[in-house]
Amino acid sequence: MKRDIDHLPEKQQAELARIRTTLLTEFDASIAGGTQTWRKHGKILKIILFGSYARSDWVDEPENGYLSDFDLLIIVSNEKLTDIADYWYVAEDKILHDPAIGRTVNIIVHDLAEVNAAIGRGEYFWTDIVRDGVVLYELPGHPLAAPQPMTPSNAFALAERYLETKRADLGAWLEDAERWLNRSGEGSHARKRTAFHLHQAVETAYILSLLVYTFYFPRSHNIKFLRSLAEDVDKALISAWPRETKPERRRFETLKRAYVEARYSDQYDVNVEDLEALFVSAKGLAALVSSSADLRLAELAAAAKSG
Questions:
Q1: Which of the four pLDDT bands, split at 50, 70 and 90, describes residue 200?
Q2: DSSP assignment of 125-180, as one string?
Q3: Which of these, 126, 134, 148, 240, could form a disulfide with 285 (CB 3.0-4.6 Å)?
Q4: Three-state DSSP class for 79?
Q5: Contact 101, 191 (CB under 8 A)
């Protein structure tokens, strides 16, 4: 694993330095005053940059709406410290509103035992991080496990199971969304339900892709984050959501908010035209994900048969 970010432009290096400082500072604040041993002695063991900025294939075209995110893995000393709301919300919020940080920052938080167990199982998401990741911070004495290759037959069986389950879920969410879309003229309650079911369809589509390709997805309902991870793995998915124009970007942001606001906000509503456009994009995404997953499964089946 690399331990410097000299391959990045100075601007991104400076941004990552600010992000690292914020994460460390706000984590210390979040555990201050804790009496439980796991909290009182809680530690960030590692902060690792992964994804396109670690591999040097990032995209930096803000004028076209295409700007790669920073993806960070934070490894902590205890599983209880992975709770985003309790220990990471303030840090995420400060990073989000920091004018010196010019791109989206996504974090996933896991404890060392969980990470090492996944590496030991040979799960692709984690072994890719070991191969390509860049350590931004670490405490000595907490090594990652040596990656173990997943057998081709196990990889095929796992991916096949994920595909079967999630494809059924995806179809059900789209059916529900279409049913409510057809009732959208009844009022905002129908439009909000359409938006929520579309959000769940899109979330499920990205989870399906991530599971089939990497055997991992983050515990997040943020479809912008899931989109970033899935598109990083499978570039074919980028075409599902055009983002060159403000209306295109606005629609996706509206859908992103639907997980919470479509259920709990009296102010949230989406016009029928936007819902219809979102439905077309969600169906297109589902078709792309399904086709790509079938190809991936065929590759894994061939490897299992020859292996």
A1: very high
A2: HHHHHHHH-EEEEE-TT-PPPPP-PPPHHHHHHHHHHHHHHHHHHHHHHHHHHHHH
A3: 240
A4: helix
A5: no
